[in-house]
Write a structure and sequence with these properties.
Layout (H helix, E strand, L loop, with lengths): L14 H13 L16 H6 L2 E7 L21 H8 L2 E3 L2 E2 L4 H10 L27 H7 L3 E7 L18 E5 L31 E2 L2 E2 L9 H15 L6 E6 L7 E2 L2 H5 L7 H26 L6 E7 L13 E3 L15 E4 L20 H4 L3 E4 L10 E3 L3 E2 L3 H9 L7 H5 L11 H4 L8 H4 L1 E4 L2 E4 L2 E4 L4 E3 L22 E3 L5 E4 L15 H15 L11 H9 L28
Parallel strand pairs: 1-8, 1-10, 2-14, 3-15, 4-5, 4-8
Antiparallel strand pairs: 2-13, 5-6, 6-7, 9-12, 10-13, 11-12, 16-17, 17-18, 18-21, 19-20
Helix pairs in contact: 6-8
Length: 583
């Protein structure tokens, strides 16, 4: 990477990028039945050798909310399918992400560390689009290897122009929502947690999109994750197994607000604390969902040639509860499949329910509980010798870009389009030799990971700049949140690093109980020097909401979110087809 000036770049600049946007927009009004697949880059013999890839990103998945991280029996944690997948695959013990969702997802899509794409939350109406348009997305790279590409679930990587959407990033189809979270029956945008609110909020803009148009035909027809399941099953049953499949499932589980089907909530009625109960119900639902999809792949003869990857986008949230949940049943006046009430308990006050025990902190924190996440690899494509193993090698979610493209599919992921626009190159490293058992060393061991201008991890060490005030500086327990955490949540605790900085040995002390800078001055000096060197290469653009976005949701899309810039070609010159098509 080279040092970049913030003023030099815009997500909306180069002539090439404008040409790309015109191409995407001109395709934007085609019927859903039209074919969008690109010519295959390889012959059929080569394609048969490539594995199907099932890539799963879970939302706000707590370290302690999965069975394989339990050290004692805990009847609240029920993830038998995921536990089985880990037992048959590789547990990734040091898989890192950003502490919040947008940067982690942009990192995976772009192959850059967040410091070279985005390090802040960006809403759907972000004018820069979260990820610069002229950074090539992972799906576009996989298509060069001959993959059919499909995305289902949360996007959160921008929608400024048609090129910023999953379709514009290389996915043949997508069933998605653009924001950080949405309500799971109305698909209305979630605008943030409440404090002591007693009524379920009235729906606002609907955040639900099907490839190149609002998903109005599916909106309000049932629990959102069931709709995602049906789309994935449809993709699998219609897929030509001779063509490699790249299926990305960005689960809505378990972001706020918390909603789970009543039948799943009943399984956890023994839990008195509502946030914790519904959170566990959602994770249990996800476990069944993954069991369903992977079993379908087995039934269709695909699993033995499938590489499955699962990662959370950040740690589980551990904020204050800030008020009660809302409980209503199907007999509540007005309740139905298109309402967010009437389906047992829904939690939208505070942001609580997850648990990262024994790690410190959680989502929004740079302690391990916020950036070290549940992750594993499974599937029949894995060499037999590595199944049932646990890897301690350092890996970042950005590394999947090169690992899948180069290590698995055999294509060069170099981003020439970004280079032509003066954007940073990819940071992604090929982890396939480590994952496949060819060696046991992570290429990140010496390079490290720069998370922010104040945080650097390399090898066993984590260094935090002096004077940094670290958030969520506490630990939960086997059951969290609980009665005592109402008045004493993890988010209430902070830890300020001394002048020389904080140093943690996260191999010997993964729970970060001991700050060891004074005992290791040479390590501090080395880590600080390398961090400062890499900080010089941080790249960023200004992110701010555009009021025209929400106006377009109503004037163009009938109350649904969608792209609002560079839509000139949405009006056909001959037939004058207008945006009414989307209503």
């Amino acid at each position: 990477s080279q040092g970049m000036s913030m003023a030099r770049f815009s997500a909306m600049e180069s002539p090439r990028s404008r040409a790309m946007a015109h191409w995407a927009a001109s395709r934007f009004l085609l019927l859903a039945a039209a074919s969008w697949s690109l010519p295959l880059a390889t012959g059929s013999a080569m394609r048969k050798q490539l594995p199907h890839i099932f890539f799963v990103v879970v939302d706000d998945f707590g370290w302690a909310n999965v069975g394989y991280h339990q050290t004692a029996e805990n009847r609240e944690v029920r993830t038998p399918f995921m536990d089985k997948l880990v037992k048959e695959g590789i547990e990734l013990n040091r898989h890192y992400v950003h502490m919040t969702c947008t940067p982690s997802r942009a990192s995976f899509q772009s192959g850059r560390l967040p410091v070279h794409v985005i390090t802040e939350l960006a809403p759907p109406c972000d004018t820069a689009g979260a990820m610069p348009r002229n950074m090539t997305g992972i799906a576009s790279v996989m298509k060069r290897a001959g993959y059919a590409t499909h995305q289902v679930g949360k996007w959160d990587v921008g929608m400024t122009t048609p090129t910023h959407t999953p379709k514009g990033r290389g996915y043949d189809t997508s069933l998605t929502y653009f924001s950080h979270g949405n309500w799971m029956y109305t698909e209305a945008e979630w605008i943030g947690h409440h404090i002591n609110e007693t009524n379920v909020p009235v729906p606002g803009i609907i955040d639900f999109w099907d490839t190149d148009r609002p998903a109005s035909h599916l909106n309000g027809t049932g629990y959102e994750e069931y709709l995602f399941r049906d789309r994935m099953l449809n993709i699998l049953h219609k897929h030509d197994k001779a063509t490699p499949l790249f299926l990305q499932y960005d689960s809505r589980v378990a972001h706020y607000p918390l909603l789970a089907p009543p039948e799943y909530q009943k399984r956890f009625d023994f839990i008195e604390q509502d946030n914790r109960k519904v959170y566990h119900a959602m994770v249990n639902f996800l476990d069944d969902q993954l069991g369903n999809i992977t079993q379908t792949m087995k039934d269709l003869g695909m699993w033995d040639n499938t590489l499955m990857v699962l990662s959370s986008d950040n740690g589980g949230y551990v904020k204050a509860i800030n008020g009660p949940c809302n409980t209503t049943d199907e007999d509540f006046p007005g309740a139905g499949p298109d309402t967010d009430y009437g389906h047992s308990t829904v939690c939208y006050n505070g942001e609580a329910g997850a648990n990262n025990f024994p790690l410190r902190g959680g989502k929004y924190s740079n302690f391990e509980g916020g950036i070290r996440v549940n992750a594993f690899v499974s599937g029949g494509f894995l060499p037999a010798a590595v199944r049932g193993t646990k890897l301690d090698g350092v890996m970042h979610i950005a590394d999947w870009y090169r690992t899948l493209a180069q290590g698995v599919a055999g294509v060069d992921p170099t981003d020439s389009t970004a280079a032509e626009s003066g954007l940073p190159p990819i940071d992604s490293l090929d982890m396939w030799p480590m994952l496949s058992g060819a060696n046991m060393t992570s290429p990140r061991e010496e390079i490290g990971i720069l998370f922010t201008e104040d945080l650097f991890v390399r090898g066993r060490w984590k260094y935090v700049r002096g004077g940094t005030n670290m958030a969520e500086a506490a630990w939960g327990g086997p059951q969290y949140p609980n009665a005592s955490s109402v008045a004493d949540p993890i988010e209430a605790y902070h830890f300020k690093c001394k002048k020389m900085g904080c140093l943690f040995d996260v191999v010997a002390d993964p729970t970060e109980r001991h700050e060891v800078s004074e005992a290791n001055p040479d390590v501090v000096a080395s880590m600080k020097a390398e961090m400062e060197r890499q900080v010089e290469e941080i790249w960023a653009v200004k992110h701010q909401p555009d009021p025209a976005c929400e106006a377009a949701a109503y004037s163009i899309y009938g109350g649904f979110y969608g792209p609002w810039k560079e839509l000139e070609t949405l009006v056909d010159r001959d037939t004058q087809v207008t945006a009414e098509l989307f209503v």
